[in-house]
């Protein structure tokens, strides 16, 4: 079945326009574990007033990527960047304010594909998300 979208919809202008920033701070890094913090701020809240699911998954993926980068300085187009090829996220909780913390550890550290487990919590250690990501190193 083919779907047709009227071009007149695109000529009317935007119905909604959202803009915000997302940021994180690296708190600790070792060869086997990375911990980071993301403030819950207005720019990452959905219209319901809690953190957008995409922001939570982004936070987990970025923290996992820092683990896989192993202290190297990422550059655009670099060889060996850990590109996510699969993300499995269980969103368990959420918040309207405070900070989220992510801790990433290896499930499997491979030469081609690596698997990372990341747990996102709030300031009270309530689980926000349980995320497993698979990464391949770019060539």
Notable traits:
139 residues; six-stranded antiparallel β-sheet; alpha+beta; 2 helices; 37% strand
Q: What overall form do the CA principal axes indicate? A: globular
Beta-strand share of residues: 35-45%
Q: Spans of 5+ residues with little confidence (pLDDT < 50)?
A: none
Number of helices: 2
Write the element-wise H/E pattern from the N-terminal end onward.
HEEHEEEE
Q: Characterize the biggest β-sheet.
A: 6 strands, antiparallel
> Given the helix and strand composition, which structural class is it?
alpha+beta
How helix-rich are the residues, as a percent range? 10-25%
- Radius of gyration over C-alpha positions, nearest whole angstrom: 18 Å
Walk across the major sheet and give the strand order.
1-2-4-5-6-3
First-to-last CA distance: 38 Å
Mean pLDDT, as a whole number? 89
Structure description:
The chain is an alpha+beta fold. It contains 2 helices and 6 strands. The chain has helices at residues 8-11, 53-69, and strands at 25-29, 33-39, 82-91, 99-108, 113-121, 127-137. Strands 1-2-4-5-6-3 form a 6-stranded antiparallel β-sheet, with helices on one face. The longest helix is centred in the middle third of the chain and has 17 residues, at 53-69. The protein is globular, with a radius of gyration of 18 Å. The protein starts with 7 loop residues before the first helix and ends with a strand. The model has no long low-confidence stretch (mean pLDDT 89).
